[in-house]
Amino acid sequence: MAKEEKGFEAKIKAMTTGGCACMTGILEKKASTLKKVICKGCGKVFRTNRDTEYCYDCQKKLKNM
Ligand SMILES: [Zn+2]
């Protein structure tokens, strides 16, 4: 199931690369498989439907680095 969702998401992303943001917004709402993740950066528990191990704050920090 998760694999299918990821493949579907990748397809859409490839199709809409740099495209309309509303499209990806709808997709994210559809695949609202929110899971609890413990941030590897600060240890904060947060929820995300993305394949990440860092909270939004740490992601921002990583991007700025
Ligand atoms: Zn963090």
- Please give the order of strands in the largest beta sheet: 1-2
| Structural class assignment | alpha+beta
Return the string of H and E elements. Answer: HHEEH
Average pLDDT metric: 79
- Terminal CA distance reads 35 Å
User: What number of structural domains do the residues give?
Assistant: 2
Helix content: 40-55%
The largest sheet is: 2 strands, antiparallel
Rg calculated over all Cα atoms: 13 Å
* Strand count: 2
Note down, in words, how this protein is organized.
With 65 residues, the chain is an alpha+beta fold. It has two domains: 1-32, no CATH class; 34-65, no CATH class. The chain is 51% helix and 12% strand. The protein has three helices and two strands. It has helices spanning 2-15, 21-30, 56-64, and strands spanning 35-38, 45-48. It has a two-stranded antiparallel ribbon. The longest helix has 14 residues, at 2-15. It is globular and about 35 Å long. The mean pLDDT is 79. Bound molecules: zinc ion.
